[in-house]
Amino acid sequence: DAKTTQPPSMDCAEGRAANLPCNHSTISGNEYVYWYRQIHSQGPQYIIHGLKNNETNEMASLIITEDRKSSTLILPHATLRDTAVYYCIAGPTNFGNEKLTFGTGTRLTIIP
Amino acid sequence: DTEVTQTPKHLVMGMTNKKSLKCEQHMGHRAMYWYKQKAKKPPELMFVYSYEKLSINESVPSRFSPECPNSSLLNLHLHALQPEDSALYLCASSQASGRTDTQYFGPGTRLTVL
Fold it and tell me: Are B30 and A96 within 8 A, CB to CB?
């Protein structure tokens, strides 16, 4: 799996959009970008994933650059419940037999 | 329903005890995973079962013994653990089919070894 780099921490005001960057410059052509988050002492929660097109679901939007070397997770209207560690993961390429290699993630704090 | 359940939520055991962690999913997923997470660290993979067969063992010590009795259940048997094995143990499952394979995690079992 490609290595990812994320800022260790970020703050965002409640109600504003939170934009979390991720660099994955060594990503291969068939590796997806996944985002998970982990609220304190809970299991990681899947947010969104994408290959090369921008993606949106009820939780967030994922913007992937054209060269696929970086991406941004956007939480459009952050709430206090969005305070968590956010993990950007590149991979897996197969199905059913792959591990998620978690990096150190970004600790996002939503400020009231 | 994307729920993975884990029992117990908390477990305290001595170094000579034998205990088991249990994980269950009813999403029809055919891949199940055990991860270990130490405090302030990201989760690390321990084992993967795919179609009820062990497919990945990340060089985990033999005092951890996984078992997959059927496609919905995953156990982790613990024996002669060390205090440094204290951690949050996470179970996950995925479909094991299709172009991508989203993993869904349970809430974890907080293990303390005395």
Answer: yes
